C-alpha cells in the first residue's frame, strides 16, 4: 500500500522599501531563502512577488510585520497595502512578528559573505520569519 503525504507549500516575504526578501518551505521542515526582489515601485514588486508565488504553487504566504518601535503602525499599513496589491485569491495569508529578524540575519551571516545591498540579508530575514511561524 502506497502512502502519499502532501505538504502545504509555504512562502514568506520580508517587505522592505528597497527589497523584498523571499523564502520557501516545501516539506513542512526546511526553509530555503530565495533571491530577493529588488523593488523599483510597488506595482512591479507586487507583480514579481505574485509571479513567484504562482511559479511555486504556494498555498500559504507568511508576511513579516514589525511589532514595537516608533514606526510600527506606518510600516504595518504599508505592508498590508502591499499584500492587498497581490490579489491573492487561493493563497492564505498569515502575519508573523518580524522584530529583530534583519539583525538576526546579519548576525547569522557575519563572516560568511560580505553584506551588500543585493537582498541576501532580506531573504535570510524572510527565512527567519518563516521558521518562527512554523
Using brief descriptors, characterize the structure shown.
Nucleotidyltransferase, domain 5; 5 strands; five-stranded mixed sheet; 134 residues; single chain; alpha/beta
What is shown here, in short?
The protein is built from four helices and five strands, in the order βββαβαβαα. With 134 residues, the protein is α/β, with parallel strands linked by helices. Strands 3-2-1-4-5 form a five-stranded mixed sheet, sandwiched between helices.
Characterization of this structure:
By secondary structure, the protein is of the alpha/beta class. The chain has a single domain (10-133), classed as YqgF/RNase H-like domain (Nucleotidyltransferase, domain 5, 2-Layer Sandwich). It is 37% helix and 25% strand. The chain contains 4 helices and 5 strands. The chain has a 5-stranded mixed sheet with strand order 3-2-1-4-5, sandwiched between helices. Strand 4 (60-65), helix 2 and strand 5 form a beta-alpha-beta unit. The longest helix has 14 residues, at 42-55. It is globular and about 40 Å long. The model has no long low-confidence stretch (mean pLDDT 86).
List strands and helices in order, with pairings.
Blueprint: E1 10-15, E2 19-25, E3 31-38, H1 42-55, E4 60-65, H2 72-85, E5 92-97, H3 101-108, H4 120-133
Parallel strand pairs: 1-4, 4-5
Antiparallel strand pairs: 1-2, 2-3
Helix pairs in contact: 3-4
Amino acid at each position: 500500500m502506497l502512502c502519499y503525504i502532501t505538504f502545504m507549500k509555504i512562502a514568506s516575504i520580508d517587505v522592505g522599501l528597497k527589497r523584498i526578501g523571499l523564502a520557501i518551505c516545501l516539506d513542512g521542515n526546511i526553509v530555503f531563502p530565495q533571491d530577493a526582489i529588488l523593488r523599483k515601485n510597488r506595482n512591479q514588486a507586487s507583480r514579481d512577488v505574485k509571479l513567484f508565488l504562482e511559479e511555486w504553487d504556494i498555498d500559504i504566504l507568511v508576511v513579516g510585520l514589525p511589532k514595537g518601535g516608533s514606526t510600527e503602525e506606518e510600516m504595518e499599513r504599508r505592508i498590508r497595502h502591499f499584500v492587498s496589491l497581490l490579489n491573492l485569491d487561493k493563497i492564505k495569508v498569515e502575519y508573523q512578528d518580524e522584530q529583530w529578524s534583519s539583525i538576526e540575519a546579519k548576525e547569522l551571516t557575519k563572516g560568511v559573505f560580505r553584506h551588500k545591498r543585493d537582498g541576501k540579508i532580506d531573504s535570510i530575514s524572510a527565512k527567519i520569519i518563516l521558521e518562527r511561524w512554523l
